[in-house]
Amino acid sequence: WEQNPLLSVPKLVDKVIKAKQLSREAAALYLQYLVLLRPTAKALAEYNAWTPKQLAAAQEELVEKELLLEAKRERAGRGHFLPGGWEAYKAPLPPNESWKLAMYPRSKALAQEPFHALFERAWKRIEDGDEPRYEEVKR
Fold it and tell me: N or C: at which end does the chain have fewer Cβ atoms within 10 angstroms?
C-alpha cells in the first residue's frame, strides 16, 4: 500500500525518527495521521500489516510525545487525533482535523496526488514550523 510510509517513503520515515525521536513504527504512523483522512484501526492495520498490539504501541508512543491525543469525536471511527481544530462535516464528507484541509485543497474526501507526495508535503509543513496544535485564543 502506498498509504504505508515505511514502503512509499522510507527515507522520510528516517527523517521523522531523527527529528521527533520516535520508533520506526511511530514515525510512520505519525505521517499517516498527518495525511490520511480516515486513519481508522482497521485501515491502518491493513495498510501496515500490523496487529492491534503493534498499532496500540505506536499510538501510545505518539500520545506520550504529545503528537496525538486520545479523544472521542462524532463520526470519526477512531480514538486518536492530531491536536488542533476539528471540522465536523456532514455525511458524506468525513469529519477531520482542520490541519489536514491544506492537504486536500480541491476535495475534502479524496487525495488529489499520490500518498508519497502527500507525506512529503505534510512533513515539509512540519519542518517549516506549521505543526498541528491548538491555537492560542487572544482576548
Answer: C
**Vertex 43: Cα angle to 42 and 49 (nearest 5):** 85
* Entry field: residues in the chain: 139
7: three-class secondary structure by DSSP: helix
Model confidence over 57-91: pLDDT tens digits?
Answer: 999 999 999 999 999 999 999 999 999 999 998 88
Tell me the C-alpha distance between 21 and 29, whole Å. 13
Is the CB of residue 28 less than 8 Å from the CB of residue 48?
A: yes
Render pLDDT for 98-110 as a digit per residue (tens, 0 to 9): 999 888 887 777 7
Asked if 24 contacts 17 with a C-beta cutoff of 8 angstroms, the reply is: yes
The predicted pLDDT at position 108 comes to 73
- Is the distance from CB of 102 to CB of 125 less than 8 angstroms? yes
